[in-house]
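FAQ

Q: What does a record look like?
A: Structure on top, sequence underneath. For example:
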């Protein structure tokens, strides 16, 4: 029988983390032998704290810190004014070396528990690839817009809510973003323009999206507005904002309106209008050049992307003769990387605009041994036009691979599969399916694409069983 009650306080030591980065503290029960786990955010393994119970479930509860009695050796100053309020950077209070250790353990544990494979015994588990400098690493930011005390505010959502935590800056975003946001907010208030209200569905400005090219230094500013693309009423004001933005920052090369008048949590709408510039920025991964539009998928951490793709290329083991299928290819970033070493690459993507961007990127880089196909990854088949793959590369969304796709992969008879994953849990699930279908995990490389957060990317190599 659970005797833990809401609002009670206990002294606990943090001994582990949940997958969401919450600290785990255990309260000893009345029998003196069993324990009741409390999950407490903003704690570090080794902390001894006084915690207050804020929610009780049948077999666990949630708590909050009242006092840190003895801080962990892994605890550090988060160095952020909104840490603990904003829903991002869950690990910012933990020293970086300890973050990497936890991410390694998290990946190997879920691979064993869900995937049924043990690191070092069933496959080679490589040390996580971290960053030398974890500040300001992101090249893309999306800021919700709201009203507070009659003024326009921008910031980030509090965890699991749509309540905006106002902030002028973010320690993992580009340093120019803060000034751009302040400029837009001042213009908006001075122009007496409205801000979108989620409850009523009224108001104009919904989000501000900023993308920055780390090599060319080009910056794109995109306003997501609750208007129809045919609405000309505010166009003059937007043009004036564009002119003033351009004067304020020499790096701003494109200013775009994205139209989203739907009551939805999806940020971008289907239509856009370029106020000035080309409507995209140009960035590089190694010696490859890519056009990046407002809705393009492009890895947010350019430094770690190079390491991730180089490992994927190494796992592919290309000699210049192989046919490669790159499934979920997006705008062709990995496809073009592979094409430098492959015989021929087929990039497959269901989003038509991304396929158009991929074709443009291939042309811009003068790469001819690649073909991009607009199709669901699970629907691709060997035919006269599509040769049998020697190597398949997949980079699916967080939900992992569709089961039909895993069947397609095993039926294609490929020798090697390189699986790029942003979710260890779905990678582990798919590993168990692939293993039962005749492909075994050989090597796994975690890459820390998202320092200060719980996110971790992985590159896995599977080979056909003999």
């Amino acid at each position: 029988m659970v005797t833990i009650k809401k609002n009670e306080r206990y002294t606990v030591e943090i001994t582990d983390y949940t997958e969401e980065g919450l600290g785990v503290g255990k309260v000893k029960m009345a029998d003196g032998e069993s324990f009741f786990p409390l999950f407490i955010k903003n704690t570090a393994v080794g902390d001894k704290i006084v915690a207050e119970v804020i929610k009780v479930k049948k077999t666990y509860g949630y708590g909050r810190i009242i006092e840190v009695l003895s801080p962990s050796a892994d605890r550090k100053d988060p160095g952020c004014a909104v840490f603990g309020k904003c829903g991002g950077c869950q690990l910012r209070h933990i020293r970086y070396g300890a973050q990497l250790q936890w991410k390694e353990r998290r990946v190997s544990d879920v691979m064993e528990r869900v995937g049924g494979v043990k690191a070092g015994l069933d496959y080679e588990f490589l040390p996580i690839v971290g960053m030398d400098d974890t500040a300001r690493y992101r090249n893309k930011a999306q800021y919700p817009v709201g009203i507070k005390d009659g003024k326009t505010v921008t910031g980030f959502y509090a965890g699991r809510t749509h309540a905006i935590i106002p902030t002028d800056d973010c320690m993992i975003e580009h340093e120019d973003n803060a000034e751009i946001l302040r400029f837009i907010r001042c213009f908006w208030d001075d122009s007496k323009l409205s801000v979108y209200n989620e409850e009523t569905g009224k108001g104009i400005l919904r989000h501000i999206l900023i993308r920055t090219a780390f090599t060319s230094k080009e910056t794109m500013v995109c306003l997501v507005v609750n208007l129809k693309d045919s609405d000309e009423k505010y166009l003059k004001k937007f043009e004036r904002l564009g002119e003033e933005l351009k004067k304020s920052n020499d790096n701003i090369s494109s200013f775009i309106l994205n139209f989203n008048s739907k009551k939805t949590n999806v940020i971008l709408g289907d239509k856009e209008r370029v106020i000035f510039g080309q409507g995209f920025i140009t960035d590089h991964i190694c010696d490859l050049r890519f056009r990046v539009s407002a809705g393009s998928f492009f890895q947010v951490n350019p430094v770690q992307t190079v390491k991730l793709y180089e490992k994927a290329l190494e796992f592919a083991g290309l000699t210049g003769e192989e046919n490669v299928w790159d499934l979920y290819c997006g705008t062709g970033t990995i496809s073009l990387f592979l094409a430098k070493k492959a015989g021929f690459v087929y990039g497959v993507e269901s989003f038509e605009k991304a396929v158009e961007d991929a074709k443009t990127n291939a042309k811009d880089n003068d790469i001819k041994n690649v073909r991009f196909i607009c199709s669901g990854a699970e629907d691709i088949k060997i035919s006269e036009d599509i040769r049998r793959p020697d190597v398949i590369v997949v980079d699916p969304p967080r939900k992992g691979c569709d089961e039909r796709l895993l069947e397609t992969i095993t039926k294609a008879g490929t020798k090697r599969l390189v699986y790029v994953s942003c979710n260890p849990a779905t990678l582990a699930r798919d590993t168990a399916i692939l293993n039962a279908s005749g492909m075994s995990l050989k090597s796994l490389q975690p890459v820390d694409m998202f320092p200060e957060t719980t996110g971790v990317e992985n590159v896995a190599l599977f080979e056909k069983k003999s």
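Q: Is there anything notable about this one?
A: Residues 96-113 form the longest helix (18 residues).
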